[in-house]
Amino acid sequence: MSLSVSQASYDATAGSVGYDVDVSSLSIGVEKSVNPDASWGVMLGVMDGSADVPNGLGDIDASGVSLTAFGRLRFGDGGLVKAAFGYQDTSYDSTRNVLGQRAIGSTDGSQVFGALQAEYMQNLGAMRWGPTASVEYYDVSVDGFTETGAGIWNLDVDGLSGDLFLGSVGVRGEYQLASQGGGTTLTGGVEYTFASGSDLAIQSGFTGLPGAVLPVQGVDDEWVDIKLGFETQLAAGGNGESVLYGGYAGSLGSNYESHRLQVGLNYLF
Length: 269
Known about the structure:
Blueprint: E1 2-10, E2 19-35, E3 38-53, E4 58-75, E5 79-98, E6 101-120, E7 122-124, E8 127-142, E9 145-146, E10 155-157, E11 160-176, E12 184-197, E13 200-206, E14 212-216, E15 220-237, E16 240-253, E17 256-268
Antiparallel strand pairs: 1-2, 1-17, 2-3, 3-4, 4-5, 5-6, 6-8, 7-8, 8-11, 9-10, 10-13, 11-12, 12-15, 13-14, 15-16, 16-17
């Protein structure tokens, strides 16, 4: 089980007014060992988020449910590969303030996503460290909708679809604190991440009138990810083992900034 909250800010660009995003999510899953080096599992997740445009121009609220299948495979002396593939169904509610009136929209969307991550850790006393790399892919689609509530200023907006690719490379470390029992492990890492997304052409226009195609520049950005965390064994015995984990993940770029806090509980049986 995992609970996370995050906040991100996107600066204004030539093709965007900029916006702030807040997201909270809860995930519950189960994982089964195939052998000492391999396991697989499934995870169900729910999320709720909002994006606010500065100066009171409008906002978007989103909620979604996702289902993810994942697996882990250990190799060599410290190697680990993780893979995940999933689907998310999302609903959106938007408001747009125009000339003292509020245009309201509602629609649905979905995304298919996949991720692959690998690391190779080396032992150095109570510390383990090593290189890590990952790739992620998202295929996103949103249905068209018609606004209400703003009279002649309501818009008809066609559906859209696009994809996003992320790649990361960096280094990760773990440090085992000396204590009786299972103890606590401190974790940390630094990664360089680049993102590339498809350009979009969105057709929209005032309700009942011919529309126009609006080009939207795709994501083309890079940033540095910083991760700090911990894992603490709460209990261990013949019936199972429980581990509390949590931490902070931050992303810093020239046009993008994100901060996320996460806490979770694993129970092994």
